[in-house]
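Fold sample X.
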Amino acid sequence: MDNKKNTISFVASGDSFITRRLPSYESEFQQLSNLIKKADVRFTNLEVTTHNFEGFPSALSGGTWAIASPDVLKDLKSYGFNMLAWANNHTLDYSYGGLDATYKYLNQNEIVHAGVGYNLAEASQPKYLETPYGRVAIIAATSTYHEYMAAGEQRPDISGRPGINPLDYSIIHVLSKEKLNQLNAIEKAANVNGFYEQGVKEGILNKVNGDFQPFSRLLFKEGEKEGKYSKPNSRDLKRILGRISEAKRQADYVLISIHSHEIGGNSLDEPADFLKIFSRACIDEGAHAVIGHGPHVIRGIEIYKKRPIFYSLGNFIFQNETVSHLPSDYYEKVGLDNNHNVADAFDKSTKNGTKGFSSYPLAWESILPFWTMEGDNLKEITLYPLDLGFGLSRQKRGWPTLRKNEELLKRLASLSSKFGTTIEIEDGIGKISF
């Protein structure tokens, strides 16, 4: 590390669901770009595939089949980003051809990127950014994905499978003894577990741990405190922690990116139990920050062992309704046919903007944190509110602008207080001091 400067600065955003080119380098863009470029390390999460339809649409998608021209990567660089993750629920929207092309265009644009690879070892490996003030590693994973999207292990006798770095998890539902007996009676009456029981009998399926009662694909357990809890998959957790162990010996700083839609209670802004367990384990292993995104809203900030965990930074760019094409699967889902176009499809799916994210104001405001470290010590975090244009037409909303927003910061402060974090608010800007 350069002795002339013992501090290093970071800025991170949430999801960049970018499907349009920057219209101009206007003053609002310049103001935001200048702020981002003040940091040494500048991270965003790319939530689209970027290619010229080299891949065909997958049978399953992350919701919208997310595609954009590779030229949008130039716009992300114009903002100042020099590091990104792209392990998320849209990575394989255009199958392996889309993955391969996106990988190619990211490399052509010389952007450090992590979380996706041609086998599991590559998808999970740390990627490194060289700065004058320290070498920085990024490791990226996602807990929100279809099973086929997970990268496969390489073997001596066969190649691995391209895909994302997965963080799987299990959910346990807890019921009282009385209710568990009622559930068991319902299962017997409806023969919910017939296939499972026959599979176990024939040796095709593994028997569920005796502490749990299966109900279709759900697991139930007896307990006094009813509800649900989740925990990370031990194999995935071990693999990711092993990569952190490697990276902390190869770099001065280690960042973890995790894309996670899953919720802990009944609200998008509450992280799942497994995400909290995972994030703290990453810090325990040596990570310097955990950067969360995925639910398209902000979540609280935890300072754990003097390291930040951003459970979700919301959206940075959100242009999910201006993709150029959609496959027939999407049209069929909303009751349309080949005589219709993308505008028809989005009008129908959102009921002309009255349902979905287009009508949800919390998806259109978010936070951009800027923090500094001196050696291993976190010095200060400044929180800049962003506005993405709620209420504008779909072709105009989705670009971020800096806005002083005390109500947003108060909401973030309330969410963060659950983790013991205090956010000071002054003149529309938030600060966490140490």
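Fold sample Y, listed below.
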Amino acid sequence: MSYKKYYQGFLTANAKVQHFACHSHHYWPDVTRAAALQYWDDSARLVDDKWDYIFGEKVPKVQKQIAGILKLQKPEQLVFAPNTHELLFRLLSCFDWNKPVRILTTDSEFHSFSRQIKRLAELPQIELVQVQTLPFADFTTRFAEAAKKLQPDLVFCSQVFFNSGLAIADLTAFVTSIAAVCQATIAIDGYHGFMALPTNLSELEGRIFYLAGSYKYAQGGEGCCFMLVPQNNGLRPLYTGWFAEFGTLAAAKTSQVQYSKDGYQFAGATMDFSALYRLEAVLDLYHAEGISVAKVHQHVQQLQQAFLAELKAQQHPLLNEQKLLCADLQNHGHFFTFMLDDAAKVAELSAYLKQHGIHTDYRGDRLRFGFALYHDASDYDLSCLSLRRGE
């Protein structure tokens, strides 16, 4: 089945492009344009009263939509922010940095975390341990062993690693193995898993923080990220905004700063909610058309197989299955990563592909190809690679 009819705006604007950078910059369905205009119209119609409308109707609706996708029972424990870095830093601000803080993570976290945590690790009281994700076959075992040894205050790990596409096959078992050996606060970066891999957090609700957003596979564009917050966690973010007072504004004032009793305990301040409108429109579209995450995943798996067949036909010395980082195609992110020996060659190859209308992206020695609902396998054409077989 072709799903292109939902993406005519972006596809028409990029008619001569094979867009394999969708794991980074995903095309938006056409319904998001009307949603953006609706945000303008609602702002004009309601002016200051729009906040009551947004928090009274829009936010609860999208919370329920996300909760349905992730199999959550308490949608009110989801909090929104413009980016995951803001949510991450709010979580980090719960720890007392005047005392030793031990943090366990990996060497493959996205920049919103890795840059910030490396900067914090310059402080003498921050102890940072990064477990290598490769070799991946024993990663989860090695990570649990590191947790037992370090006894961290915070554990932060991705569901799908952005620089490889490698995915933790059983997230519940992974979290359980960590919780069995330490008492850490556990946070999972789900950005490359949400709306890509079927994800059931029902057994993890109340146990983990889970961060994701709409920029990638949720297809709503930038500006709408969210975090699942465990209920009754007892934390008091130092980095906090007035949205976090919702639910307490009518209470008797005390000298201590009060926090909302739900996920908005971790809220910030005034933000542009047009992205939430776009995300709502995408999720409405999926519901109306019967498009589940499982169907998206199945479609992408078929695309990945077609891509590998096309790649095999080219017999390229660098882009081939031997260079592909993959442990299990049935439990893999929606992009492929080829790890080469030379970062300069990767940059050159990506540029060459772009000259031939094939858009990819790369990080150091890794070249990435993403797959999306708006792809048809019949469109794949990598014949330009045959011109470079001898290089």
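Sample Y note: Residues 293-314 form the longest helix (22 residues).
Also: The mean pLDDT is 95.
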